[in-house]
Amino acid sequence: MSVSNMKSEEMKSTEKLSPYSAPALSRGLRILEFLSSSAMSKTTQEIATELGRNRNEVFRMIAVLEVEDYLCKGADGIGYVLSGKLLELGLTTPKISDILEAITPLATELTLNTGAPCHLALPSRDEMIVLKRWEPKFRLSINVPVATRRSLEITASGIVMLCSMSPAELALTISSIQERYSNFSVQDLEPHQSELKRNGVLQFNSKLIDGVVDLSVPLISQGGQLHGALTVPYANNATCDSSIEEISNMLKSVSQRISKMLIRP
Q: Within this chain, do residues 122 and 70 fall inside the same structural domain, yes or no?
């Protein structure tokens, strides 16, 4: 099943479970989700086929989304793509704008001093999304592209965020994970929680790249709100100027400084 089809099925399920009904809104959201996962522009007919709806009905929804600046014509002048409005809304959300403003100088300093790359990841349901990355100049490093999405439970960033969530947020997230991986439970996090409590940083052998050790810390506000995770993918000290211990200490310092800088709950 394609990513877009999976999202469509997910939306259909949500519509059935919700005690309230707004079918037009649900279909409009499904259009946005479908286009967000499409590398190419999509015509009205292609969108209608994806949603399983009449072309005229979808045409009206697209017209409204275009007027409201959520959609625009693609380079071919025929199909539709997402505009930058959703990105703009996301980046101006206080929780995201706060962490971007606070972490940027600290992550830049870390990369400059260690010669190691790092990236900022945020949680999204049962996944982590890379929002921004910092790379050392004139040096080979592991590139984790912006917008990379991975399951929370298989990445250092994801595990650190799971370990740092409030009980209510963690319960909802684990429920989402169990929809695709039924064997996962909160007990799987206990060794990582102990390591974070003991060392302040998680050292995790990457499940995605052989030979890489991911070093990750949570980014939490004074009020205990999780804002994301900062992670360094460490290959060996031949690719950067610092050891694992030195980078871990710098990451812990960043995490502590962030907790003092982020005042908003």
A: no
